[in-house]
Amino acid sequence: MVGQAALSSSLVLHINARLRSFPTPAFDNASTTYCEFVKFLYKTDPPNPAHESPDWHVAANGADEWLRSLTGVRRALLAWEPSGDARLSDRMSSAFVGGGGHWFVCLDRGEFDCWEGWWRMGDPKAADRRIWQVHYARVVESYPMEAEQLSELTAPVAEAAQALRSAVERARAFASRRSLDGFVACFDRAFACLDRSRPAPDPFHTDVAPPGALPDEATRLLAACQHAWVFGGMGSWNDLGIQGEGKSEYEAASDALFSQINRSICIATNASAPAV
Fold this sequence. Notes:
- With 276 residues, the protein is of the alpha+beta class.
- It is built from eight helices and six strands, in the order αββαβαβββααααα.
- The chain has a six-stranded mixed sheet with strand order 2-1-6-5-4-3.
- A hairpin with a 3-residue loop joins β4 and β5 (112-121).
- The longest helix has 24 residues, at 247-270.
């Protein structure tokens, strides 16, 4: 699971945990392991030339400060939208910071305010390896989300798990035929997470949700998404370079897997939301 998705998911999980009166630890988990800072910005309208950044001002200098500042929020939802960039698919651009489509933290106050994170590199040689400077900006205000979109974002976890399982099965079958054993192992770990009778292998992001914030089936779905996420740059699933026979199946299986993982990350995360 890419950093943008993990951090946005964790923010949603912490907001909903607070709304449901679960104890929430300080926001310092695996989603921020490589972040120098995470700040939150409002658009300044009209621009203020006295500010260092005339179009923006800082709403909060960290996630904990921002979480404490939120008022009137009924629930938070995670949403993903494709970029619509015809030059490069979101699956392929996921190898780059800022690629892979758009992840939104959506705050429900009757209508939705949506925040999106931007990542830029700070000091690439930082001794603590915290090289990413992250700014979340409120990019949409008072958005009246349609019932169909809400229904999709809050679909049943079991339905999302079945759709993800089908996509993983298709990708695993392709990998097995090509003797891509490393990827087969990734997909097998995802299968284990989706089978509640088996122990779920730990993913990298084990602590993005406060204790109790998610039901077990949603925790497993989120873990399955992490294990099935094989996209990226050099050496990744995207880098296989399949040509000729098998290319069309590779492309179709890859796109289906990418789509279902992103969808499942949203649905699993949103299972933390209180009823409204």
